[in-house]
User: Fold this.
Amino acid sequence: MKRMTAQEILAESFREIAEKKPADKITVQDIIENCGYSKTTFYRVFKDKYDLMAWDYCRRHRQIMAPAENADDGWKTTLLEAALLFNEQKEYLKNLLLHTNGLDSFSRYMKQVHFQSFSRCVQNKSGMKELDVKTEMYVKTYCQSTTDLTCDWIMGAYDVTPEELAEVYENCLPAPLQKYLL
Assistant:
């Protein structure tokens, strides 16, 4: 049996509260009271609630991307799993998008996480130790556009299924990257 870490428990506590309260109104005190931890424990593992949100999103994203980084045929499955996760967490992610703004906005963070993991995926598939400038630009363009599209979808701009969203992700993959992933 796997036991939850303090980070996982605190993140779960935050997600529970975020079901009822805007993210920018949630305090560290709210988080620790909800799960029975102390401020000392919270600050031992996170610097603030935004660090907690970033850690939680990054952890969940890594779980989806890990198989695609190494498997030969996992890209389409990975896209669908990502869209299904976004759908499952739609209300939570909507809260984060609506109530975390400024330089460290959640959407900006999403783009960074997607760029880092997608870059690793392309590196692993291509055998490159480091992406060349043009490939990096294709990766960045793809990550920025799909993240913006995902945020719009989460906010209700497009009424499509997760499967249809995954299809759009797949069809928007730049041709120079297709040889590594499709």
